[in-house]
Amino acid sequence: MFPLDSVSRTVGMAVIGSLALASSWVKAAGFVPSETIFPATTRAWLSVPDPQGLRERFDRSQYGQLIADPSMEAFVTSFKEQLSTNGKQRLAKLGLTLEDLADVVGGEIAAAAIEPQPGRLTMVLLVDTTGHEEAARKLVDTIGSRLVERKAKKVTMADAPAELTVYELPPAEDERKQTAPRDRRVAFALSGSALVVGDDALQVGQSVAVLAQGRADSLATVESFKAIMGRCGGQLAATAAPLRWFIDPLAFASAWQQTNPPLEKKKGPDYVAILGRQGFDAVKAAGGVVALSEGAYAIRHHSMIYAPPLPGRDPNGIDRFDLAAKMLRFPSAGDVEPPAWVPGDVSGWTALQWDVQTAFTAAEPLVDDIVGDKGVYDDVVASLKEDPDGPQIDVEKDLVGCLGTRVSLITDHVEPIGPDAERLVIAMEAADEARVAATIAKVMDADGDMQRIELGGHPAWELIDRSHAIPQLEVETPGGAITHADDEDEGGHRRQRLREKDEKLLPHSAVAVAHGHLLIASHRDILERVLTAEVGEGTLSTNGDYKAMMVELAKFAPGDASARSFGREDETIRPAYELLRSGAMPKSKSVFGQLLNGILGDGKPGSVREQKINGSSLPEFAEVQKYFGTVGTVFETLPEGWLLTGVSLPRAGESEPEMASSQAAEPVGR
Description:
Shape: globular
Mean pLDDT: 84
Oligomer: single chain
Radius of gyration: 26 Å
């Protein structure tokens, strides 16, 4: 679980990356809106209708000013070179580079991941070249020359549009080892003021055929797309030069897996398949719109997760979904605010309304499915109650049943900044604090690795062995290794391994029950800060930057909410910035750092990945700190899913732009 303000930062980075393609724009259209051209089988879509407008807004934003700061020049130059190299690698199959696209963009640029057949994902890029037709013609010739240099052979297709050119590439070295080699054909076409490029000739050809009028079975006709854009699209004026996006998460992930199989088959569960089996396919899609320099906001985004209830189900009922997906229940409340004991100088805070008791019950089939052995979840719960060497507690009755519906996260860091600098506290509301305290005491006292201490006048427990204070977070990717039924002969061994793995997955070293909450902290020092915080002035809820953010969020969501978040960008970004600058990011022990290492690493136990970005030329953080402000997000539960609205405000005193209006002048689009 992560603070919701991370959504704002992630969206911001996606916008910045897309600006590499935004060179110039003329208000003309080389084709109808891309959502009417791509088919209904589109699983992911990204569109920038006005690249030049987006670029101009970026330049005006605090992030654009950051990039333009002379102290950043060396890093920006280095990063562009790295981005160019990576871009060439990713686009090489199509005979393109990022620089090529920047030279021909004249209107909308859009990319789509399409699943024309079950389990087969293809990519199509659509570029409006209005005003750059000559450059586009030269680029088409260049693409062909590059493909020939790579020993690609031109092939002909019956009934193909005259503009379509198709090449077949020789298989790459790693693909020769695969039992089912990937399709190596690529296709491109320049039709009027439209450049269409992709790795499936049929999809490219179909796109070319409908450039002027669109298609009847387009992405724009998909129910989830209509719901998302209907809810989010009208939030921003067309003049805001938005970025628009859409994804069908499980369908995309499944098709990606099958299209890009690993060279070596790995043991373990397939998480994408498991989520589908456990009812999470109820989440049909996610998408939204993003704008830069919109009124008072450096970034403003409106996003929706479309997950309507199953047919005949109550949108507010526990049975809205089936199986483990029942845990996706986030009731609304009108008092989602920081408790009075949250220190005022923390990096970030998030509070989420969550039906914890339903989630506990719904987790049973999910855990069993992951382990591959029915009954494991119940066995672990039973062992906590019946094992004579255990705490002998009824988890559901003595703990989960005594919790409330509020889960809060507090994030911060300590000096000096290093791989172990980031701090985290998870606070779970206790409806019956005394009973929760008694249960936790039994659990902790029965654990030989935990030591009872006192912090701020409250009993607490911390790990005795400090070398394991922050256990290694093992992130399992689809197909990755995990304790599984096929790997063990005896059920008891499997269940013991499951318990051991659960301990490693929790990066918590200190626990207490106080302030009406069960507090689970990554480090003793952050827990002590929370336990000794003085209620009153100086706490987060009384700080001016927090109150200013809540005023802005209330313009978009004035009523009840399921979650709210607040973050200080400088304090949130600084640990990663310093680690990136020193080349130590792969050694990070934070939750985010370990997740990143798990995704980007080689998957071998104990190995440390090579840092992908060279940050040695970054300036001292103090030189750029002024460009980072505050971010906030509000999360609302709807009958058909969830709505997220997030904004980023410039640093107080840096600028005084005109305050934004929550009223949109006209819907996004053309």
